[in-house]
Amino acid sequence: MTYLPRAFKALWHELPVLAAAGVLVCVASALVVLISPGLSPLSLLLGAVVVGPTWAAVTATTDAIVRDDRGGVLLLLHNIKRQAPAGLEVACVPAVGTALTLLNWQLYSGPLFALPLALSGCASVLLLLAACHAFSLRVTAGLRGKTLWLASLQLVARAPLVPLGVLALVLLALVLGTSVTASLLLLAPGPVALFASAGTWTEKHALHR
Prior knowledge:
The protein has helices spanning 4-13, 15-35, 41-68, 73-107, 114-139, 145-158, 161-179, 183-187, 189-207. By secondary structure, the protein is an all-alpha fold.
């Protein structure tokens, strides 16, 4: 079973909730940029605290859209309060890993530091890829802790193109949003979350078929 047709259908039928999701994510991201501009360990950790809960609410809503054909702005607003702790829990893991990588990079001064930098860098990449699945598996499937991340990594190993595609959409939106028009940044989060949900549940269904 594939959930991608529902995702494509929702791009039009769920346009209001996708637009609302974009506004929420962009407001949260703007707050992070305002407090801690640039890419730094502080901005990453702050992003996990501020953007993570918002992204969990968006993911819970897009999960409902692709799985149950049920969405709406009211559901999104309800999920903000309901899923905030789960979003913080999931977002902190890749944020801490990536912050450690940046810290190792800043401290790098010779071959002695190459090993911790390489290890933290590899761990950060894996955690970022796994996070594309982890939000859905946490807020909808209810997985937690080691079980959550092992299940997420299993989906990454099964179909790495899914999280890579999600991250590619994020990077494309950032590039176009900063070089062409900032309005694209408002439009991007909803569809990104929608296709992340569709990819996660398609691969999850195929894994247990």
